[in-house]
Description:
Blueprint: H1 9-18, E1 31-52, E2 55-59, E3 74-84, E4 87-98, E5 117-120, E6 127-144, E7 169-185, E8 188-199, E9 210-215, E10 221-229, E11 233-248, E12 260-271, E13 276-287, E14 300-309, E15 315-316, E16 328-329, E17 333-342, E18 348-357, E19 363-372
Antiparallel strand pairs: 1-3, 1-11, 1-19, 2-10, 3-4, 4-6, 5-8, 6-7, 7-8, 8-9, 9-10, 11-12, 12-13, 13-14, 14-17, 15-16, 17-18, 18-19
Amino acid sequence: MTSKSEITLAALATIFLLIVPSNAFASSKQSFSLALVGGFVNIANQHYHQSGGNLIAFSSTNPDARSLTATTARIHYSLDATVSGTSVSGQATLKVSVGGSNDETGVGSGNDKGSGNSHENSDSTGTSLEVQATLIGMYAAAGLPLDPTKPTDPLACDPTGTATGTCKSEIPAVFVGAGYLKVKASGKTTDTAVAIMFESAYLNPFGRPLVIATIDATGTPDGMISIIATYNSQTSVWTGVQTAGDVFDPTSSTPTVAIGHFSLTSSLVEHLVKGTENDAGQHMTLFGFDFGSKYSVLNSVGNFKGISTIPKEGTPCLAWPFGAGTCLLTGARSTGSFNLKSTDKATLLGGKYDLSWSVPALGFVGTVGVTIGEEGNDQE
Length: 380
């Protein structure tokens, strides 16, 4: 994405519907009521944790797992992933069981792992299915930077889907792991090497059902394990988040012409069970405002903080092959405040922002009120 990205007549029309009245940030000091259009440019580092949950659906082609059903079995799974640019690392565990011990952490130690191996199990009660996997990759929901010539394609920077494009970073839709499936039944244990996918909670907020499934070499579910389960704990931490876009003055005689630009480098912590996010940045920059104009004082740098909320309503994912109700695209609303200093460090600027994100939440339009000579209030 560049500072000119995704500026369309439709987006600008949305701005004018959202823009606050010019007196909304009224002050005896000089002030501006402006509009913003922008979006993500890069996310340097992402950390994800999700665990759960309640078993909604279960099937397996493994004959030893035939006593496991969604109505009788219990599930516990946990995933911890780190994404650096387009690379993934981390661990995931899964256990589905019925009868026997109620141990939800007893994922196999791996001392006797091997494709198709079986051996006697001293605990002959109950049936369980366990996976311990190392995360080795992902299928992306979006790649950054976005291509301004293809605003409806979130993966335009990686057209082959093989991470060989020009993406600086990607947001996971699905995490892929490699490990071993251990099935315990009738006093015996069978170990099988598997590849397994875990859907990211990013694609279905508020603890809604996610897909977990073993996959073949092409990434297609192979039926060995097919699970739909909710999650009850989730945290996303993004750092080095770069956002950029353009600034407009809707009260001017040329409201569709950018008067300047902005860039942000920030961090965020998201809780998708609640649908909330805390945002903070030490690098907010307004730049490119003509020094001979009334807007020149807006050339400034500083920090901001705010909150974002995710609406419970959304749009079901198109061409999502893993079942209805397991993928929902949503937008978001971000509000907050900022404190800046002019580039000559002689003038304070403060204000508030209110942004409405697209669906999916990759770009935004919104409003910003700037007061010259005044600090912005902290956003709780």
